[in-house]
Write a structure and sequence with these properties.
Length: 280
């Protein structure tokens, strides 16, 4: 074999022309601190990425996954909404109030179908009125995930997408993907996609006591296709020990209670591309 046709090794190539997939390409943008030092230490930018789709996978809800986001929920809802779209159970006001989440900034969306859940998630992002959005989607194809990632980027709003563990095998445009597991009272966070090298060991997080003692989600019927901010003071709700539906959410919208609501789309508008946000 002649020298001209001999294969080259990576060591023979100029270093500035070779990008290795397991290293960072430049300095990652500054992230939002997670409130968990061990997790911040392994995330590019030192926290949750800004304006990005973040996927969290669990085998079942209620293992402490909301505890992971509590520090950011407390910090980011001072002047904008905290969007919750299609949670699997009803938000439980006393637990959230005890954890320091301002209930008057919580925007709870109960869509009637997966298509409406996807639509409502995009409108929460596009409205510019949410500091962060949490959404529970069972099934979502690559096209839907790309639209969500683009909406998060354009609004510079972090979107936390809760999905079943089985969906972790599917490809995704998310910049950060975490698999969450119960680890004998702790929350094991497996970072299996990030900007940079993979992690061999999970990060262990101690769930916050208020979430463990009184779940933030309760198994109660959810009124479908309704969205209501929670208007009662957090201290009053904490004393009542009532689920949100009984303490702060009525079955029909009231002008005195609701000042912001995502309107349920009619079918034609739900399918229209580029449909603007309908925030009433």
């Amino acid at each position: 074999m002649s020298a001209a046709s001999a294969p080259l090794s990576l060591a023979d190539l100029p270093g500035d022309l070779v990008w290795r997939g397991r290293r960072f390409n430049g300095t990652p943008p500054q992230g939002h601190p997670t409130g968990h030092g061990a997790l911040d230490a392994v995330l590019p930018g030192g926290g949750w990425p800004t304006g990005a789709l973040i996927e969290l996978f669990t085998a079942r809800p209620g293992i402490g996954e909301l505890s992971l986001l509590l520090p950011m929920m407390r910090r980011c809802t001072a002047d904008r909404w905290l969007g919750w779209v299609a949670p699997p159970r009803q938000p439980y006001a006393p637990a959230l109030a005890a954890a320091g989440v301002p209930l008057e900034r919580l925007l709870w969306v109960a869509p009637a179908s997966p298509a409406e859940a996807l639509w409502a998630t995009r409108q929460c992002l596009a409205s510019g009125g949410c500091s962060m959005v949490l959404s529970w989607l069972g099934k979502a194809d690559m096209a839907a995930l790309r639209r969500l990632q683009l909406a998060a980027e354009e609004s510079r709003t972090p979107l936390f997408l809760f999905r079943p563990a089985s969906a972790a095998q599917q490809p995704s445009p998310a910049v950060l993907r975490l698999r969450l597991e119960d680890a004998h009272g702790q929350l094991a966070v497996h970072v299996f996609k990030r900007r940079g090298p993979l992690l061999d060991e999970p990060v262990l997080i101690q769930p916050r006591p208020p979430i463990d003692a009184r779940p933030a989600l309760v198994a109660a019927p959810v009124p479908r296709a309704q969205v209501h901010p929670i208007r009662q003071p957090a201290t009053a709700l904490a004393k009542q020990h009532l689920p949100v539906q009984q303490a702060a959410v009525s079955s029909t919208p009231s002008p005195t209670l609701v000042t912001h609501a995502v309107v349920r789309p009619d079918p034609a508008r739900a399918r229209a591309p580029g449909d603007p946000a309908r925030i009433a």
